[in-house]
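// run 5 | inverse folding | seed 20
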């Protein structure tokens, strides 16, 4: 239910912003120290300068929401296939062993309950695509299996994160060449490794928070803080309806692949290449078959055309067809 989803999200946002927005208050105190008693006036003026032009007439609000639903529906027949590849991000951020644990957990009641408790369903790609609409388009989301594949990906991500945290904590306890790597990975999830080592285990709260963060990083969020301010109204949501996924995927690649390479860790890049060559290839071929059947084209000829492409071009195409970046491309093709 929507109430419980919003409750999960708020609980974990407390960790980000502090109880009663205490971390925001601390930031404001820092601004006051910098600018003196007039700091509130400066912050308020800056906020108004960003938001003064964001008011919209009711007509634009309703028409934007209707168009958002239309573009979602016209893209949905490919979207469920594209979204299958979103778990590749989970493999990139964690590893294949933990990905396997995550997939296995989706078939158990305990795995699904853990994902729910971790707030894995607090955000929804489908909800973002539809904006405020919950009519015809929401029925299509269910009919085409978009909700099913998204929930699957989120359960996989949460349980994979749990398994990967346990793997890294074991590495931390055992020492060896992977100790510093394991410590860094746990630190990135907000875990105090010193306290965890003292007590000898990870608490359930640490595991839940870590799982939520991995879900948010790999499956993405559609919250207001994840989008430009302009996207806070209906017209802005329409403009960023699909673009936000491309933006967040680009950020993911930068943070989880490029920056990790800079730290001497080629693992994420290698896993990305493997996922593109396997799962990406399957997704692209499935979409070619589906498109050919719907348009009356010869399936064998269309597959053969793809086979004539250079291997590097195919690998690049495969990579762009994994997960929400592919959703972005599907949406773009639907409205252009």
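// decoded
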């Amino acid at each position: 239910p929507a109430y419980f989803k919003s409750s999960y999200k708020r609980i974990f946002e407390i960790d980000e912003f502090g109880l009663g927005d205490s971390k925001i208050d601390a930031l404001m105190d820092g601004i006051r120290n910098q600018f003196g008693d007039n700091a509130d006036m400066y912050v308020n003026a800056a906020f108004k300068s960003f938001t003064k032009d964001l008011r919209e007439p009711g007509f634009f609000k309703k028409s934007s929401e209707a168009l958002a639903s239309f573009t979602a529906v016209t893209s949905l027949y490919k979207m469920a296939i594209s979204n299958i590849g979103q778990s590749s991000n989970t493999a990139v951020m964690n590893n294949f062993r933990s990905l396997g644990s995550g997939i296995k957990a989706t078939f158990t009641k305990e795995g699904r309950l853990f994902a729910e408790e971790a707030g894995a369903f607090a955000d929804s790609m489908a909800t973002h695509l539809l904006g405020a609409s919950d009519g015809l388009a929401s029925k299509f989301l269910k009919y085409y299996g978009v909700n099913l594949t998204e929930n699957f990906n989120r359960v996989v991500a949460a349980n994979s994160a749990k398994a990967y945290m346990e793997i890294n904590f074991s590495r931390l306890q055992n020492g060896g060449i992977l100790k510093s790597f394991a410590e860094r990975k746990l630190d990135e999830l907000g875990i105090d490794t010193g306290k965890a080592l003292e007590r000898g285990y990870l608490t359930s709260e640490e595991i839940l928070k870590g799982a939520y963060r991995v879900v948010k990083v790999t499956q993405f969020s559609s919250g207001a803080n994840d989008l430009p301010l302009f996207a806070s109204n209906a017209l802005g949501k329409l403009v960023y309806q699909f673009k936000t996924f491309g933006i967040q995927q680009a950020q993911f690649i930068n943070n989880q692949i490029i920056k990790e390479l800079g730290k001497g860790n080629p693992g994420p890049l290698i896993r990305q290449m493997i996922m593109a060559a396997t799962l990406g290839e399957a997704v692209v071929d499935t979409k070619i078959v589906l498109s050919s059947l719907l348009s009356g084209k010869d399936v064998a000829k269309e597959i053969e055309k793809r086979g004539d492409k250079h291997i590097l071009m195919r690998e690049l195409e495969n990579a762009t067809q994994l997960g929400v970046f592919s959703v972005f491309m599907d949406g773009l093709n639907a409205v252009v």
